[in-house]
Amino acid sequence: MILIVDDKQENLFSLKAFLQLNLYDVDIAVSGEEALKKILKKEYELIILDVQMPGMDGYEVAENITGYSKSRDTPIIFLSAVHIDKRFVTKGYSSGGVDYVTKPFDPELLLLKIKTFTRLYRQTKELNDIKHNLEKKVEERTAELKEANNELEASNAELQQYAFIASHDLQEPLRKIITFSQITKERFISTDEGIHYINRIISSSERMRTLINDLLSYSRLSNVSIPAFVYSDLNLILRETVSDLALAIKEKNAELVIRELPSLQIIPDQMRLVFQNIISNALKFSKKDIKPVIKIWSDYAKEKSADSISLDKGAYCRIYISDNGIGFNEQYLDKIFTMFQRLHGKAEYEGTGIGLSIVKKIIEKHNGLVTAKSKEGGGTTFIIVLPVK
Amino acid sequence: MTKFIRFFLVDDDTDDTLIFREVLQEVNPSIHLISAVNGQEALNVLKLKNDSLPDIIFLDLNMPCMGGKECLAELKKDEVLRHIPVIMYTTSSQSKDIEETMLKGAICFITKPTNVKELKNILHQIAQNVHGNLEKSLRTLSNTSTTFIVC
Question: For chain A, how many structural domains are there in total?
């Protein structure tokens, strides 16, 4: 619909009749005040505005229209018989008009202009609607995602809590099974066969205990509270780990060759777990008839990669832990870092299949990566890549 | 003259009470064991036994009605009972539990051992030193034992 604003009835009627003849819906206002009232209530595709009116003149009306958000995009054509001077035309444009037509005007030309402006208005409006809808949709989706994320975080925290409690409560009956088995064994079992079977009960229960303990430490890793990163000397952390493992190292008669390691921004307790798991793995999967030799050294790399060229300085530090043990086929590389995945029978090599998944989780928490190079029978080298900053 | 020794175990877990009783029997059959299944019952029992108080109290943490922490606080409020040494005897090994109970006046925090031998060893040490330097002997034990003991 088009709004014509003019204080002279004869102008109003002739223009109105002319536009209606050309199939436009037309509304009229005889003053600026009336026009503004109508604009507040209704949406127009185009406003044809007489400049010279008693009371509020055309410029003022235009300024008001463009200041009002609902009608801001409505095109305005000024019509003037008196103010045909250039400075009035300029004033018309600056107050919000898109065109300035001087009287007497060519009806055909005005009609063309009206056609163009109404089409432009409709297109702009359509575009705005689409934009508005899109924004609304994006907002909705964002809200949905946020909601889903919150739910996920909550259920994740619940799950971790659950794992922790479950592991802790699972220890309870197990402790009793072991204790009562020991009492039974000591007091009531006198045959070798009986002792053999009860020892099997005890060792199975002990295995389950280790399993639950490992699960506990894994679930503690995902605890919601994030432990602090501390700038620490890896040599110190490694030395502590080695002294914790002293008994196992002595038992296997293993040799450790350790080069100078750097200091990095890490979570000390977690890095200790990493060293502990990889070194005890190296001891566990050693060859039966060869003295285990474990070598630990480091270098730097430009990017987060285990294969890129070795540098003296770089954004990433790489720590290598190699052994001369039984190794594994690299096609199982993914498997060794997955929980409960074991490449060997329980009778051959002990272990719960959780250790390396703990390592992976910790290194990922440090924004690093861990991988291994190995050959069946040819030893294994674990490579940890950690960001320097 | 050997004095008659009394141990008091406060634990709602009947299996653990049974294990404790059995092992204590082996350690020293002459030790008298009294037990209660929660903090409230423990306080009631102790208030009735004014003339035959236990030499030491073993206190579990998680119990119905009144848990170990609350019971410990009540014990330490009582003019007479506060002098009986309390050892926390629980499945927990959490630092917040340890700190809290040690602050409240427990002399030692023992996580229930899995191994019967360990328990026997602990109870033996306690029985031997209950009228001597109990804390010192427990501290020595905590250095050599694989069981989680904090003094």
Answer: 3
